[in-house]
Amino acid sequence: MNSITMQCKIEVLRIFRNPYFVFWSLLMPIVFYFIFTNIVNADVPDVELWQAHYLMSMTAFSVMGSAIMTFGIRMVQERTQGWSSFMKITPLPAWAYFTAKMFGQTVMHLFSVILIFIAGYLINGVSLTFTQWFFSGLWILVASLPFLAIGTLVGSMKKVETASGVSNILYLALAILGGMWFPIYIFPTFLQDMAEWLPSYHFGNGAWEIIRGNAPSIKSVLILGGYLIGFMVISALVRRNEEAN
Amino acid sequence: MTNPVVEVQHVTRNFGKTTAVNNVSFSIEKGSTVAILGPNGAGKTTMVSMMLGLIEPSAGHIQLFRHHPKHISVREKIGAMLQDVSVVDKLKVHEVIALFRSYYPSPLSMEELIALTGLEKNDLNKWADKLSGGQKRRVGFALALTGNPDLVFFDEPTVGLDITARRLFWEKVNALKEKGKTIIFTTHYLQEADDVAERIILFNRGEIIADGHPNAIKQQLAIRNVSFQTNDAKRAIQQLQTLPIVSKCYQKDDRIYAVTEETDTVLASLFKFDLHAKDIAIEQGRLEEVFEHLTKPNGEAEINEQHNDAM
């Protein structure tokens, strides 16, 4: 068990030492939050609700980004640099290697959630009940699983450049179309209809419901669950295909 | 074949239509040092990757310590230094080593690793992905030995190292040999194989073309020749060429060379033909020449020999 603890510790260390993490996962969402709640869009009917809503959007945006990009791109890097093969000749089981990665990722998500929530409190004095803080944070952690599955798909790409390009586009498209930057009610109807089927919309929507005092809808849970299973199956197929070659 | 650590039986590996390794069999005894020698593209790295369980053979079987190479008990007993492995980023050298130490049941201490590999104390606090070539190699060497393995693989360990670093590396490997480790390394430097290994498995185009002690390989494969001086070179060449045991006869500078496997018989013939031979010498080709001779395509080998002759 010692090796797994050590592996987890090392993964966490590596993530926190990465300046991209600090920039993309913390700085950017917080700056966005500041701009869209204080400079632009300040004339919303219910300011307090908007500030809490947009805090959830930005937290979800941050976690979704690290799940898709950090996780996937690191996998590609480690493979292209021969490190993944090298790990295979050590006694560390493959599942432990993967588990440690997931653990590191979860710690990173937890850290992002806490920090961005604190930023929301400090910038706009967002005030929620303890239950709302707790469950919205928990929702964002757990419901990020489908995006980690997308991350493993990105991780099966051959080149870092491809992985980084594809995941960037995917990330931004999912964020914008899912209503994380602007609420979807300002979109044309066909985009609103489309958002209803995107995992990013439901990821955000769960948290948006929680801060309004509701539970995430069954539809959100089902759609996110469906995406999770779908991406895991594709990921498994891709890996089997690779091993056959 | 008392205590084989590695057993390779009729192993073939295809990549698409190309055959990287073709029906290869050998076994390696505990405590021996074996060089897998061959030119680039001979299938050496593929062979090592299969022994490490990183690539499955298309046909045939490989066992390490009587288990599949992927077996956990095997992984605890092996270490490897592979080509083109960069250590992951954002970790210091001592952290990577600490991580590796946690993988094995009885790892070596940091002090032992420093002594065994020539890793320098001030390397330990550097970022592992930002080292110079030589430092990287030392870290790779240390990682290969961290688990105190019984069997160590080095895939082209000295490529890109300068002469001093190379000499130091082989000194450390010799120390490992004395500890009774089984060592398998690939190289395309014949000199290294000859100096370090007690057995050479010579690969060419995916097949084993020779296997044995470096001296035995020289004996078995060396190009031997009888050379001498004479006043009547033309007649000497004509007459020697009539002998079936002489594969080639030529003149270089003021000497006549008869290439043969049976030098004694050629000597006898020299006197029988009454060629007035002076300053007779018997030469055995260096292993370097044998190697080139064996691993070059036929036409090229011929050209190469002539080229050597001209020098």
Give the percentage of residues in beta strands of chain A: under 5%
Number of structural units classed as domains of chain A: 1
Mean pLDDT of chain A: 92
- Give, in order, the helices and strands of chain B: EEEHEHEHHHEHEHEEHEHEEHEHH
N-to-C span of chain A: 33 Å
How many strand segments of chain A? 0
Count the helices of chain A. How many? Answer: 11
CATH level-two architecture of the largest domain in chain B: 3-Layer(aba) Sandwich
CATH superfamily of the largest domain in chain B: P-loop containing nucleotide triphosphate hydrolases
**How would the global form of chain A be characterised?**
globular
How many domains is the backbone of chain B divided into? 2
Q: Regarding quaternary structure, how should these chains be classified?
A: heterodimer
| Unreliable residue runs of chain B | 298-311
**CATH-derived topology of the largest domain in chain B:** Rossmann fold
Domain ABC transporter (chain B): 6-230
Protein name (chain B): ABC transporter ATP-binding protein
Pfam family, one (chain B): ABC_tran
GO molecular function (chain B): ATP binding; ATP hydrolysis activity
